[in-house]
Write a structure and sequence with these properties.
2-enoyl-CoA Hydratase, Chain A, domain 1, alpha+beta, Transcription Regulator spoIIAA, 20 strands, disordered N terminus, 3 domains, six-stranded mixed β-sheet, globular, Pdz3 Domain, single chain, six-stranded antiparallel β-sheet
Length: about 425
């Protein structure tokens, strides 16, 4: 089974409430639609075989996986819907919400559009591994969810009038999605508060990088770069932003990864190489041990002082990048602890158009830290209240200004680092 970096996604972004497709998937899953039509059991066995070969946990959640195969192959299946139900039951034994089967419509809905345009309300969802509750990883900037004020860590308790208690993640996503212009009502639990959001679905055009030159804030100016998603086009936009700011002779950078839910593994590696001249970036570990270690390639675009902003909505690929920069002492991290999602998936198409996502590895930072469930602690903690976060979410123009307390602290630290690295004038 050939798996390429471009076929790998990071688990926290695998369920986006938008129409998305994972491109370049690295698993060949079926011999074809005709085989499946002749034998629904063929699909059940094919899924079992893929899990048996590639699943990250060799104990299969302490389940007797060979006995599971016998159990499900001894059942009769009159049609593909019965086979789909059996596959879902079988995968549920793994206790992993990110290893999942998708029927043809669900698989079509989760394909990433390489143009960067999504359709939906613009939130990334996960099933909390402890409580199993539907949890918002982060809203996509400028999406209906972001504009309405939905925040990372919000718990969705109802979709329209339907309770999400015990609801499968795929079903929740299907209920939230819909045609542009239609509406969906989400009931959200945030701490002790419960609130309702009436969201109108829309097409969301994503430009992952936003950059600006901030003059007079430090000698030579500062480059502010906000990265909102690790999509396929993010490396090109990041490279262009850094090169433009270098021509403007900035003295340092603030890289904002707050509420960035992650994305493609290869994108995080490419972007890390733009900031790191040397050193390890990330290692992926499958059940046989270390599978791959990615390193800087001596092609950094700048070595100027760098401060990185992170928060509880910074997940997966954001944690790879911030962890690499922190472990290599390339940047100072400011904000709050990151989300804590460190799983890698490969996603592929079955013969009848359905799909399978498989957790094949976890990743570690250069120093060997396991991010999954733990997150990354910032070097300097700056917490925001719910009210302060809502204010920034409601008025994006305040993000990265003096009204943004985390940014203000990052700027203070960056200014100190810039001054510390300036040569001192010789005494006369």
């Amino acid at each position: 089974m050939a798996v390429t970096k471009r076929g790998l996604v990071l688990a926290s972004t695998a369920i986006a409430v938008s129409a998305v497709t994972i491109t370049g998937a690295g698993i060949h899953l079926s011999e074809g639609q005709a085989f499946f039509q002749e034998s629904p059991k063929g699909l059940v066995d094919e899924v079992w075989q893929i899990i048996d070969r590639t699943y990250v946990d060799g104990t299969f959640n302490k389940v007797d996986w060979k006995a599971t195969r016998s159990e499900y192959l001894n059942k009769p299946y009159a049609n593909k819907e019965e086979a789909y139900k059996a596959v879902r039951e079988m995968l549920k034994k793994l206790g992993d919400p990110y290893t999942r089967f998708m029927d043809p419509q669900e698989y079509k809905n989760m394909q990433i559009d390489t143009s960067g345009e999504l359709t939906g309300v613009g939130i990334q969802l996960a099933a909390d591994e402890k409580t199993k509750k539907l949890t918002v990883i982060a809203p996509i900037e400028d999406s209906p969810a972001f504009t309405a004020g939905i925040l990372a860590k919000d718990i969705i308790t109802k979709i329209d009038a339907q309770s999400t208690d015990g609801m499968e993640l795929n079903k929740a996503v299907t209920l939230i999605r819909g045609n542009p212009g239609t509406s969906v009502k989400l009931t959200v639990q945030r701490g002790d508060k419960q609130m309702e959001y009436q969201l109108k679905r829309a097409k969301i055009e994503i430009h992952p990088v936003r950059a600006s030159y901030r003059k007079d804030e430090a000698q030579g100016g500062v480059g502010y770069i906000r990265l909102v998603q690790f999509s396929a086009n993010a490396p090109a936009e990041m490279r262009s932003a850094i090169q433009k700011l270098e021509k403007q002779n900035v003295s340092g950078y603030i890289l904002d990864l707050r509420s960035n839910p992650g994305g493609l593994l290869f994108t995080s590696i490419e972007i890390a190489q733009m900031w790191l001249k040397q050193g390890a970036i990330v290692s992926t570990v499958n059940r046989q041990g270390e599978q791959d270690r990615e390193k800087a390639n001596n092609r950094a675009l700048t070595d100027k002082p760098l401060v990185v902003l992170v928060d509880g909505g910074s997940a997966s690929a954001s944690e790879i990048l911030s962890g690499a920069l922190q472990d290599n002492k390339r940047a100072t991290l400011v904000g709050t602890k990151t989300f804590g999602k460190g799983l890698v998936q490969s996603v592929g198409r079955l013969g009848d158009g359905s799909g399978l996502a498989v957790t094949i590895a976890k990743y570690l930072t250069p120093s060997g830290r396991d991010i999954n469930k733990n997150g990354i602690e910032p070097d300097v903690e700056v917490k925001l209240s719910d009210e302060q976060r809502q204010t920034l979410s409601g008025d994006r123009e305040k993000i990265g200004t003096s009204a943004d307390l985390q940014y203000a602290k990052a700027l203070e630290i960056l200014t100190q680092r810039i001054k510390a690295e300036q040569p001192t004038a010789p005494k006369s």
